């Protein structure tokens, strides 16, 4: 029998598993730049029940609810279903709908920009006026991009400024975190503003010596690794809590329990003051280029002046493909908020923007019972049924933007190894929260028939009992998720063989 973890005395192994968790980033190939607005389909869902799939659901040994729908991609006819109208949290499958929402409002060619703006002329290497670092809401801006801006500033001949240095992050309304119900130290639950850096995460690294622990915080990227002072961390001789955070108007002050650290290691921590994080990193890198800048202060308005340098993100289709592959929450939230603004709204919160997206989905797609509280699926208050999710997939179409953005799903054998000769082609989006698991997308059966499907599972009473302090890796969640993924694979295998 596995030893049950105590809330007050976690094992070092369990703690380290959490500490070493991190989120990947990467680059992605080009994709089509057009995304036509979805055209509502005339077909209605016809519910049909298949005993084979029903038996699979019963044998899965999964607590909670199991809901699914699979339909013919060409006709819209439902071929199999279980509780198709029961709405459950979609987890990161929500990002599929955010992708559609973003493309409908912004277009596949949309690119975020980050600019350096001057309020005066440059005379003999001196900017006679103020310098502004202006964010445009880019959720993928990284340290090396700021280095490119500093390089371009040097190319203009600038070595110093006569005025002040300002940072503007008001392109998107500031959010201190995505989901308040998550532990404070999770890197995938960062802040959001109009100026973001490194997915609003900072790298905490530690090492133990005879004199005690040394701990550093840096904004590392592929080419640059500037140390950061706006975020500090102290090691403390205690067992719990693992982390504490005290944020001031421009500073994040962390403490961490030495019990959890071991000899050495590192992990990403969220940043709660992103515009000052980006400003400090830019100031440090500019100094390495011989450009002397004063400490940045916040600007409350969009500056007017001459654009000295500009960094532009990848186009939206490329950005969304990365979001779907790596399930980056901050990208979903920034795209969703920007899309709401582009549709003529001015939401002040993620939940407000999510309501606007929900209204759009309920009006512009066949889905009629959609409710979202954010754009990433991180919060468990969002709801959609397997029926509505399948209808949206049908409307987007086999050759539409959603399938193009989804990743290939590999089926596995009984020992969890990827099948070498997989005969079923599946492109889908996964979603996982504690005691919530979802999978939705497109597949080709062995007969060649094209199908769309949505599978939602959730044990919400069990999820509700997990203390906030244990929500990174609660007891039993991994085993439950494994059973859910096994159920998903069994259903796909059954449908591929029989439909």
Structural class: alpha+beta
CATH homologous superfamily caption of the largest domain: DD-peptidase/beta-lactamase superfamily
**Beta-strand content bin:** 15-25%
DSSP strand tally: 22
Q: SSE layout and pairings?
A:
Elements: H1 12-19, H2 51-59, E1 65-72, E2 78-82, E3 87-88, H3 94-106, E4 113-118, E5 122-123, E6 126-127, E7 131-134, H4 143-155, E8 160-161, E9 165-168, E10 201-209, E11 212-218, E12 231-236, E13 243-247, E14 252-257, E15 264-270, H5 274-288, E16 297-298, E17 306-312, H6 316-326, H7 329-342, H8 350-364, E18 384-385, H9 386-396, H10 401-405, E19 407-408, E20 425-433, E21 436-444, E22 450-458, H11 460-464, H12 477-498
Parallel strand pairs: 6-8, 7-9, 9-16, 12-14
Antiparallel strand pairs: 1-2, 1-22, 3-18, 4-7, 4-17, 5-6, 10-11, 10-15, 13-14, 19-20, 20-21, 21-22
Helix pairs in contact: 2-12, 3-6, 3-7, 4-5, 7-8
